[in-house]
Amino acid sequence: MILFNVLTLSFVCVNAFLMKDNVKLSGTKNSIENTEFMSMPNYTSIALEIQTLLLKQKKTVSTAESCTSGKIAAALSCISNASKVFKGGIVAYCNEAKENLLKVPHHIIANYTEVSEQTIKEMLKGSMSAYRSDYAIASTGYAELDITAPKERQGLIYIGVSSKDKFSIKELHVTGARVDNTNEAVTEALTLFVEFLKADN
């Protein structure tokens, strides 16, 4: 538990430092430059729907994110009383973090790559295990187009949700700017989770 608190604190401190550099004073009015964090859509409505469904079921959720960099966790926790249903999230951007924090087996990434259905399933299981949550939401993929990658993997993102005995994985192919792509992945993940909860109710 101490490890998660340290990681969370580090994440907040780094974001605070980066945000400071993006603030410019103009006369007496502050203006904030566009950043990925500030460009997040308003997820209040869907977060409230998720919270209502989880409270009704007396269940909890956690997250494991790679390409969305904590945006799913931020969306779930943007409303009051989020802690009643949202246990926490791990941002495992590099493969080492996926293996160490989420316990994704090395051979899974070695055989299928970090952007695969097999890897996201292990991320989901790792999140539920780490937080002892009833459900998990995860993401892994390429946030922007990479001309060095094979054509079939350009803009490839996997989002997934799970319970203890069921998984629902969705493959996305995004073509926009980095911010738009990650926001699309978050929206798709939250929508998939709502559908999953309703089917599981």
UniProtKB/TrEMBL annotation:
SUPFAM superfamilies membership: CinA-like
Keywords on record: Signal
Name this polypeptide is given: CinA C-terminal domain-containing protein
A Pfam family recorded for this sequence: CinA
Residue ranges of domain CinA C-terminal in the record: 45-196
Residue spans crossing the bilayer: none
InterPro entries reported for this sequence: CinA-like_C (IPR036653), CinA_C (IPR008136)
Signal peptide start and end residues: 1-16
